[in-house]
Write a structure and sequence with these properties.
By secondary structure, the protein is mainly α. The protein is built from 17 helices and no strands.
């Protein structure tokens, strides 16, 4: 199931064999200074030490924006991916009943942040998907506790999935449709924190922009109705505290769904009045792009 796991990840045996792959870009130019590469190499070696692993994860996560090929190095380094999988799986027993502490959550989030690097890089993105690694994150997305340590897990997990879907690849979308990710995504859109809602709605938007994802959502009347109810819920929940980012994402979803005649007909009667009246007047006045989206939706529903 797991991609390029290597061996010996549970002990120090594999540390001496770590090879930091792809230290050179495709054009032969070093991707980072030698000193930086050496530091990253040493941090990956320290992942094999139970004593140093937590600090090494935190430091690698902190440096994730400094080296564009770090995700490739993590994927190709002997045993490192197995360590990241182990870090994620280790907290499953703490999810239900809820027993997760903030330090343990932070440690898992650092591992997830490194997975996001692998998901982002063009050389490793599809390998991660084909190894079914995103499914390791589904237990985090199914949690319902509103405590910050659980919300952080959901948000960072969504970040990994968002990195995969942002490139509009049909195979990626098909994977998430086939593995029953959509119910988890819709639940977070409905009851998650604002940031989780923003990322989950972005992911949902990417899924329905793909013809396969669009057909999956719109081909079943009950499924389509559930989606429209949840999108209305998201809109109505913003009456007290509007979010421009979330409003735009939801409106883009409605515009896309309006391409389906049945969805368009249901939206004519059922789309939230808060989207049509002056409820979000301030956002309309301040954000030209959102105003254009609302006008586009109104024209589609006319």
């Amino acid at each position: 199931m797991y991609g390029n796991p290597g061996a010996g990840a549970s002990s120090g045996q594999g540390a001496g064999n770590i090879a930091v792959g792809h230290n050179m870009a495709s054009n032969g130019v070093p991707v980072a200074a030698a000193g930086e590469n050496e530091t990253l190499y040493q941090l990956m070696v320290e992942l094999f030490s139970a004593t140093n692993r937590e600090q090494a994860l935190a430091e690698l996560s902190r440096r994730r924006d400094q080296n564009p090929d770090l995700g490739v190095a993590l994927w190709n380094a002997y045993g490192v991916m197995t360590i990241l999988y182990q870090e994620i799986i280790a907290i499953y027993p703490l999810l239900n009943p809820p027993a997760l502490t903030m330090p343990v959550s932070n440690r898992a989030c650092n591992s997830l942040a490194l997975l996001q690097l692998v998901a982002t890089h063009e050389q490793t993105r599809m390998q991660l998907l084909k190894a079914n690694v995103p499914q390791l994150l589904y237990p985090f997305l199914s949690t319902t506790s509103k405590a910050k340590q659980y919300d952080n897990l959901r948000l960072t997990s969504l970040g990994v999935i968002g990195a995969l879907v942002k490139y509009d690849n049909h195979e990626v979308i098909s994977f998430f449709v086939a593995t029953e990710f959509l119910p988890l995504c819709l639940k977070i859109m409905d009851i998650g924190s604002e940031l989780c809602k923003v990322v989950a709605t972005f992911i949902f938007q990417k899924i329905i922009l793909d013809d396969g994802g669009f057909n999956y959502v719109t081909s079943h009347p009950k499924r389509l109705h559930t989606v429209l109810v949840i999108l209305n819920n998201v809109i109505n929940q913003m009456v007290v505290a509007p979010s421009g980012r979330l409003l735009k994402s939801v409106t883009k979803c409605l515009i896309r769904l309006a391409d389906n005649p049945k969805a368009c007909e249901e939206m004519r009667e059922g789309v939230s009045e808060n989207l049509r009246d002056s409820t979000f007047a301030q956002v309309l006045a301040e954000d030209v792009s959102y105003r254009r989206l609302v006008y586009q939706l109104i024209i589609k529903l006319a």
